[in-house]
Amino acid sequence: MNRRNFLQLLGSVGMTAVAVKPEWLYAADPTRHFVFVHAGGGWDPTSLCDPKGNAPRSDNRGPVNHYFPSDIGIVNGSDIRYAPFPDALLATSELRDDMPITSFADFFNELAPELLVVNGIDMQTNNHDTGTRVMWSGSDVQTQPAFGALVAQAQAPNSPLAFITNGGYDYSGSLIAPTRISGSGIFRELVYPERSNTNPDADVNNENTFFLHPEIFSQVDAARDRRLRLLIQNSRLPQRREAISRLLTVQNGDNNLDLLIANLPAQISSGLRGQAEVAVAAFKSQVASCANLAVGGFDTHGSTDRNQTNSLANLIDGVHHLRNQIRDAGMTDRVTVFIGSDFGRTPYYNDGNGKDHWSISSMMAFGAGITGNRVVGGTDNHYAALKIDRNTLKPAADQSSVDAIPLTCGHIHHAMRRLAGIENDAVTRTFALEGEFLPIFD
Questions:
Q1: Radius of gyration, alpha carbons of the chain
Q2: What are phi and psi of 182, to 5 degrees?
Q3: Residues near 58 by Cβ (< 8 Å), separated by ≥ 6?
Q4: What does the DSSP assignment read for 234-271?
Q5: What is the dihedral of CA 189, 192, 193, 199, to 10 degrees?
Q6: How far is CA 121 from CA 46, 322, 400, 439, in A?
Q7: How far apart are CA 150 and CA 341, in angstroms?
Q8: What distance lies between CA 352 and its chain's CA centroid?
Q9: Is residue 299 within 8 Å of residue 42, measured between CB atoms?
């Protein structure tokens, strides 16, 4: 059995007004796809989508940010606000030479009609591992699978690469086998396992690229097929017979990995851009249901303004490229993107001009099923989370009201499960979430 069919076998054995939406948005659909972009290390939303500025604090702990409140950008006709980066550093030497210069103003104004910003999320932790798990599973329970794993097992349990991942939280609880990607070359190796040279420029007809002569491979395949059929014939246990039969079916079956190779760009980009290109190609080829994209550099205990800006600019550049890839593939009505991190950063600077861990964070989402041009939740001027009104999803006017509740990842994942059409899936229901359903994405 070659490696591509082995992957398929692993998958098969389980390793605010409310807008009216089409019914397909609330049913598990194998042609729907989800992307989870993880900013590893704990990003600073006040340097991105929940800006504060340097207004004086009543507790004398220093400013939340070093830029002026008057420099905060606001999308026309929207509640979406954004920090003045990287423009604020363009005239300085604080930017790395290799940093993509993508103005946050351009990004937010262009994406706003599709974009939902969720601020003031109480992560209930400032631990990296726990925060990452809570963000992408909705729970701090160690055995809670990632949302992507739940979707993949419900929508495409037999797909060869149902849940591809570049990092972040990808624990699957043995529901499905995540495919961890170390580079785009892995797909060529999966498609051409019998070749020593799988580079796109290699002559695939050159016998020197084969480990063994093709005739020998053919004889090996025939011998393996005979062996499996004999095992089925001699097996007396029904479950064992079924497992061997499935192995034979997978071995003799085919998948769309060849199509995936055809859909990949001739030259894969580096970093987050390249991850986006591979994910969209996998979606277009219908070999993947969900994808984790990941970028690091956000644990900025020192020089936060410089380091967060560089990392956030890389993140925004990659997300913008992802959106363009989705659009060019004609899949804007089929792909939903979520962007989040372990937690946030403190609303004041430490002695190294950095910021430490803070349990309040944000999430952004756009794409299929997301009602854009909105902000859910919020924080005060000191970057403390505000309770939300469960009816409006805005910060409650009366923070002591019974209708005022802290916004948590449990609420978000209830809404994510409904959006994906898996909230009543038998497997999904075994993994409980705290909190209640709120129409966050409507």
A1: 24
A2: -100, -5
A3: 382
A4: H--SHHHHHHHHHHHHHHH---SHHHHHHHS-SSPPSH
A5: -40
A6: 13, 25, 18, 15
A7: 20
A8: 31
A9: yes
190, two tokens: 């999966």
| Distance (Å, whole) CA 439 – CA 189 | 43
Count of helix runs (H) and strand runs (E) in the chain? 11, 14
Q: Tell me the pTM.
A: 0.82
Q: Please say whether the beta carbons of 289 and 34 come within 8 A.
A: yes
Say which residues have a Cβ less than 8 Å from residue 97's Cβ, sequence separation at least 6: none
CA distance 415 to 147: 11
Q: Looking at residue 268, what DSSP letter applies?
A: P
Q: pLDDT tens, 289-337?
A: 999 999 999 999 999 998 998 899 999 999 999 999 999 999 999 999 9
Q: Which residue has the tokens 């400032």?
A: 126
Q: How many residues does the chain have?
A: 442
Q: What is the largest CA-CA distance in the chain?
A: 79
273 conformational bin, left if phi > 0, alpha if psi -120 to 50, beta if neither: alpha
CA distance 335 to 276: 12
Task: Report d(CA 382, CA 58) in Å as an integer.
Answer: 9
